[in-house]
Amino acid sequence: MASEQRGETDSLPKKIVKMTVIYILATLLALGLWTIRVRAENIIMVYLISVIILMIEIHQFLWGGIYTVICILSFNFFFTAPRYTLRVNDPNYIVTMVIFLIVSVITGLLVSKLREQVEVSQRNENRMKALFEISCGYLKLSGLDNIVYYVLKSLFQAAGERCVVYLAKSPGELGKPYFIKSHFDENMVDNNTPAVWCFINNTVCGAGTGFFSDSRWVYMPVKNRESCIGVIGIYTDGKEVDSNHMVFVNTVMSEMVMAVEKENIELERSRVELEGQRGKFLDALNHSLQCNFIRPFTSNMEEFKNVIAGCREEDRQRNRLSELYLRFRTLYNRTVNTIQMYNIEFGEVYAEREKTDFQKLVDEALACYEECAGERIVWLRRPDGELPVRVDAGQMKQVISNILNNALVYTPENTKIYISLTKEQGKGKLEISDSGSGITPQLLQKSMSDEEKQENILGCGLIAASEIVEANGGRMIIRSSQYGGTLFMISLEEAEPD
């Protein structure tokens, strides 16, 4: 293969030297055979062999044709009568020389074709070897960037192709281009327009095609089954790209697609494992907090409430205990809200919905504050009988408790909290309003950062409440109250009768 490549790239003087050396050696051998009285018909075979040797060394049919003519003239000059002239007395020698010319042409063509086949076979062998080495290299890689840059480096080393790769960022949008800067000058890198067109239309474009034909690049879609996951651009500088090179590039890109798909599968598997571990951690954390903090804390608050109930109304100690109880209740709600927010952040809110009385839920939530709220809570309207809804009773009671707690903590002590529970158009509608300073729009946003959630405990609780209400098939609306503060309205679908 090395000698063939040297023959194709030899300079003109070097080719002349090669042809001269072969001619001199062939002629000397022929003259030597002539001196030992070998017939002229056999001597001409020496020149035929020299033609084959020349074709193997120089690899160009034109040079073989010129050399064949020189050999015929030399044979006529040295070995046919009259010798040392270009005349021929015997017509048989004319036939011999014509046959020699024909055989030389046919032999030259066969040698040329054989050489081409050998070169193709050698190139295919080298490409298969390169593909094997590239495939082995994928096994050691991890990370999308490393895979793409490995492909670019391999294509340049194995096939001399300077390429740029775009991977899909989202449907209809390509990400940043990947290319090795040392392979290009600044003016060689094309703009992204042809690559984007190729990606959107899933069609080859660029040099030598019907689209963006003035480009010096050829862009091909990188496909994974039926979908296009990116684009590869091959720098041609206006030259036609060899079809075998295109097959090699496509094969390498197919291997890259499999490596990228494997990487995505690994990332998805890691994400699923992480989600599972995170879910287990949250479950364990919830269980631990429930057993070691929330349940004991709730029990202690109940005892605290009983102590407050045993004090006289005018007792100053009762007022201080009521205030302290409200602080403990607020701390409890904030702890529960934090747990709920992390559940919302890392997963979904699951509600175990069962048929229950909406009015009973409100009464149970109010009972937690009856000793510390006093006469601040005022009922405006309530249904005469039961108002059945299908919800998670524990979750909804916590939502109502949150709203009442915020109203008691963030409004002046001498203001009222108004509650209304009605049935309207097949829905249970709960309204809790106060006359405080209201809530800023920032606290009502669901897209607060982690730092904002830590600073804005009130907003954190309201977001958790809204998510829980939606998970229970309801809706929570927050707006200005007619009393100057904030109105919380919760509507739930009435449960169908059994």
From TrEMBL:
It comes from Clostridium symbiosum (strain WAL-14163). GO terms for cellular component: plasma membrane. PROSITE patterns: HIS_KIN (PS50109). It catalyses: ATP + protein L-histidine = ADP + protein N-phospho-L-histidine. Residues 333-496 form the Histidine kinase domain. InterPro entries: GAF-like_dom_sf, HATPase_C_sf, HATPase_dom, His_kinase_dom, Histidine_kinase_KdpD, KdpD_sf, KdpD_TM, Sig_transdc_His_kin-like_C. SMART domains: HATPase_c. Pfam families: DUF4118, HATPase_c. Gene3D superfamilies: 3.30.450.40, Backbone structure of the membrane domain of e. Coli histidine kinase receptor kdpd, Histidine kinase-like ATPase, C-terminal domain. The chain crosses the membrane at residues 16-34, 46-79, 91-111. Keywords: ATP-binding, Kinase, Membrane, Nucleotide-binding, Phosphoprotein, Transferase, Transmembrane, Transmembrane helix, Two-component regulatory system. It is found in: Membrane. This is histidine kinase. Coiled coil: none annotated. It is a multi-pass membrane protein. One of its GO terms (molecular function) is phosphorelay sensor kinase activity. Its EC number is 2.7.13.3.
